[in-house]
């Protein structure tokens, strides 16, 4: 954690409070771009946190960037912040400067590499990516590409692409991007290994969803607690009832669990972007999302089930995000592959990360 | 929410060496047939010999000052020792309570004489303590307790009884919470004190209460005009409730609230790997993710306690979630493998499954029932 963290976080919260309001989130669902929110984050250098200044970032570390993202999750910020962060991390890891403006990445792992053909001074691009967050508002798309020279990381301008608008269960933009024989004068390419790039996008994507969900879960707890204070039945606030108290305790437990899982995942990502701890966190936080939503909607009853109330800003996002970049089952398979390599009685070594000899098992 | 914030704890490199040392020791003990892996070992695994060996290696009272027989090591190192013991299902119940609770209590509130007398003995693994809290009519409503001590010359005369006292038949002493002034109905928590009672003193009767398996861990302890010297009062007279409640954070967030059925999870994993059962291992992966989360919560609280940060609410949370996890392991196991749980089986999976199922009701009762814990947590978050 950098020393700037508290300061950065404080400014970020102020921006989210002011520009990611109930109205902004609702308007975004109707297709209105949250321009003021984005512009303010940009003006305060929030988009470049976690990227060195010499590469066009604004300094700070990954932990700082992800704590901003957690607040974005808490305030249901309807912008591709996670996607812009991931694009910037990937580029700066490769020693490339970050991209100006709004950048997005495909939200689905199954995207086939885009095809590039040299044509005169530029390129002819063919390719399709589904479920791309805010492609309609983004200026650039970062995807894997393939040319006769091999696979590349590709930053494509989106002006000439065909965009078919779509949305997830939370009403967040998840568009289809189609490049059909599109000629592009100039685009940034960096040679990469395709499977490594795909894996990196997947793990980074999972981390951002874990962190966003941890933030949204915090909000759900806050909203639920406030409701149980304000709502009275049988002559007393409903938190005085044991049945409600048990719900609150379970909700608090899931919130604390999701919070610590996200913290450890962030910490692990800094040293190893393919750490198994990212898998543990995504599984655990996905699980928390389901439980938290069930409890909150039960406690808030009919009012929490309406569009008028803001609970759904968080709960519909949680239901959507838990499926993005890996369900429980997807990540369980990743861990199972490691387990199958174990010798007898080595489970405890996996959990503690300490094995008999110097070799490392499981958590890396 | 600040109340639910738990820090990330990075285990220092030195602890890896400590782990290997413990694992080597445990391996030898098991291979030489001196100890046997058991689920819920911190309640049901008893060996005087093993406790003494742990004492000799400096693994009891690890964090205490050297002048009291401690090792002045970090709480994280102590955590490593306790979780390694639990993971291996080693017989640690003898010294468990004294190491976990009584030592820290005496260090905080004890007199110099008490510290000098008890702590070195505990650290050697030769002096065990029992917890004297619950009474026949004071369970979850602990403040209803009635055991009382009346002042006499040079001490107190204790009368009353304690129930569900684990290991009292092995323990040398018990910390007994009792009333030293009569109950004030308007302030039931006032006027309680903690006394160190010698369980071999005249007037003390220990009667076994057998568990449903027939095993003997619980006891009822009766005090009939038991003389307790003045020097055996812990801390401030009348402050027993507050002192006792502070202890609970240690009691509730430790690895023993997560790992009681770990030997079963380990054995299940062995069996599934042998069968290359990827589907079964997917379920195990989910359990590992939960365990990873719970362990990180528990470690974080250990750090907070070391720093003196009040952690009663998150400690209660960990106990609630951790003990449910412990109970879930046998339930998931039986759906993944087709075995009949047998208490006396030679087969480890069958035996551990039986132990886990039969011990599991206790997990969510001892040290504060789930219902009480949830009340504490809910009130804690509401009052934010």
Can you offer a commentary on this structure?
Chain A: Residues 208-321 form the Acyl-CoA dehydrogenase/oxidase C-terminal domain. The complex is a heterodimer of chains A (364) and B (384). Chain A has helices spanning 5-19, 22-29, 35-43, 62-74, 81-93, 194-230, 242-271, 276-304, 311-321, 328-339, 347-352, and strands spanning 103-104, 114-119, 122-133, 140-147, 150-157, 162-164, 174-184, 188-191, 232-233, 236-237. Chain A is built from 11 helices and 10 strands. Chain A is globular. The relative contact order of chain A is 0.10. Chain A has 364 residues and is α+β, with helices and mostly antiparallel strands. Chain A folds into 3 domains: 5-79, no CATH class; 114-192, Butyryl-CoA Dehydrogenase, subunit A, domain 2 (Beta Barrel), CATH 2.40.110.10; 195-352, Butyryl-CoA Dehydrogenase, subunit A, domain 3. In chain A, strands 1, 2, 3, 4, 5, 6, 7 and 8 form an 8-stranded mixed beta sheet that branches. In chain A, strands 9-10 form a two-stranded antiparallel ribbon. Chain B is an alpha+beta fold and 384 residues long. Chain B folds into 3 domains: 2-127, Orthogonal Bundle (Butyryl-Coa Dehydrogenase, subunit A, domain 1); 131-239, Butyryl-CoA Dehydrogenase, subunit A, domain 2, CATH 2.40.110; 254-382, Butyryl-CoA Dehydrogenase, subunit A, domain 3 (Up-down Bundle). Helices cover 48% and strands 14% of the residues of chain B. In chain B, β2 (148-152) and β3 (155-163) form a beta hairpin. In chain B, α1 packs parallel to α4. Chain B is globular and about 70 Å long. The model of chain B has no long low-confidence stretch (mean pLDDT 95). Chains A and B meet through α6, α7, α8, α10 and α11 of A and α1, α8, α9, α10 and α12 of B.
């Amino acid at each position: 954690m950098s020393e700037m963290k508290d300061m950065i976080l404080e400014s970020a919260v102020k921006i989210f409070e002011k520009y990611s309001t109930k109205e902004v989130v609702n308007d975004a669902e109707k297709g209105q771009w949250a321009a003021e929110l984005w512009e303010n984050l940009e003006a305060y250098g929030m988009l470049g946190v976690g990227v060195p200044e010499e590469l066009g970032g604004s300094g700070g570390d990954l932990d700082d960037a992800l704590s901003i993202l957690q607040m974005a999750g808490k305030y249901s910020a309807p912008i591709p912040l996670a996607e812009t962060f991931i694009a910037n991390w990937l580029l700066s890891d490769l020693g490339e400067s970050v991209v100006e403006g709004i950048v997005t990445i495909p939200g689905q792992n199954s995207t086939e590499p885009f095809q590039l053909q040299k044509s005169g001074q530029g390129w002819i691009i063919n390719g399709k990516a589904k479920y791309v967050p805010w492609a309609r508002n983004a200026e650039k798309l970062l995807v894997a590409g393939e040319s006769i020279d091999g696979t590349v990381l590709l930053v494509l301008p989106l002006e000439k692409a065909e965009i078919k608008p779509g949305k997830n269960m939370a009403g967040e933009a998840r568009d289809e991007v189609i490049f059909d024989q599109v000629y592009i004068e100039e685009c940034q390419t960096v040679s990469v290994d395709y499977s490594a790039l795909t894996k990196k996008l997947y793990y980074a994507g999972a981390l951002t969803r874990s962190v966003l969900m941890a933030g949204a879960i915090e909000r759900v707890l806050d909203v639920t607690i406030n409701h149980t204070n304000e709502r009275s039945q049988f002559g007393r606030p409903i938190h005085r009832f044991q049945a409600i108290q048990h719900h609150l305790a379970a909700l608090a437990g899931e919130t604390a669990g999701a919070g610590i899982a996200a913290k450890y995942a962030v910490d692990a990502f800094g040293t190893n972007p393919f750490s198994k701890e990212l898998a543990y966190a995504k599984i655990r936080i996905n699980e928390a999302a389901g439980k938290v939503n069930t409890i909150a909607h039960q406690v808030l009853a009919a009012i929490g089930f309406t569009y008028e109330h803001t609970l759904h800003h968080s709960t519909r996002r949680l239901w959507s995000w838990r499926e993005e970049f890996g369900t429980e089952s997807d990540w369980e398979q990743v861990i199972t592959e490691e387990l199958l390599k174990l010798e007898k009685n080595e489970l405890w070594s996996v959990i503690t990360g300490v094995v008999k000899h110097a070799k490392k098992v499981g958590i890396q | 929410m600040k109340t639910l914030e738990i820090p990330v704890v990075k285990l220092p490199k030195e602890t890896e060496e400590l782990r290997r040392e413990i694992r080597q020791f445990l391996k030898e003990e098991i291979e030489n047939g001196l100890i046997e892996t058991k689920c819920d070992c911190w309640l049901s695994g008893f060996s005087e010999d093993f406790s003494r060996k742990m004492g000799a290696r400096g693994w009891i009272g690890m964090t205490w000052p050297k002048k009291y027989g401690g090792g002045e090591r970090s709480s994280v190192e102590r955590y490593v020792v306790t979780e390694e013991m639990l993971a291996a299902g080693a017989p640690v119940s003898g010294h468990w309570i004294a190491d976990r609770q009584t030592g820290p209590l005496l260090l905080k509130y004890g007199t110099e004489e008490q510290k000098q007398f008890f702590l070195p003995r505990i650290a050697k693994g030769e002096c065990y303590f029992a917890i004297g809290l619950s009474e026949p009519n004071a369970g979850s409503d602990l403040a209803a307790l009635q055991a009382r001590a009346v002042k006499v010359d040079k001490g107190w005369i204790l009368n009353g009884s304690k129930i569900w006292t684990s290991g009292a038949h092995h323990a040398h002493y018990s910390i007994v919470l009792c009333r030293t002034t009569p109950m004030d109905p308007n302030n039931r928590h006032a006027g309680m004190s903690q006394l160190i009672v010698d369980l071999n003193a005249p007037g003390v009767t220990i009667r076994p209460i057998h568990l449903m398996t027939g095993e003997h861990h619980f006891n009822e302890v009766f005090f009939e005009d038991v003389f307790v010297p003045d020097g055996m009062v812990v801390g401030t007279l009348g402050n027993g409730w507050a002192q006792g409640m502070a202890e609970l954070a240690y009691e509730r967030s430790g690895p023993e609230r997560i790992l009681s059925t770990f030997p079963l999870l380990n054995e299940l994993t062995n069996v599934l790997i042998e069968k290359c059962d990827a589907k079964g291992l997917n379920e195990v992966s989910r359990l590992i993710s939960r365990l990873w989360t719970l362990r990180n919560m528990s470690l974080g609280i250990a750090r907070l306690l070391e720093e003196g940060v009040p952690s009663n609410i998150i400690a209660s949370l960990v106990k609630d979630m951790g003990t449910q996890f412990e109970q879930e392991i046998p339930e998931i196991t039986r759906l993944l493998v087709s075995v009949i749980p047998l208490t006396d089986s030679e087969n480890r999976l069958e035996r551990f499954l039986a132990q886990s199922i039969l011990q599991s009701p206790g997990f969510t009762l001892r040290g504060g029932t789930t219902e009480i814990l949830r009340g504490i947590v809910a009130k804690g978050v509401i009052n934010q």
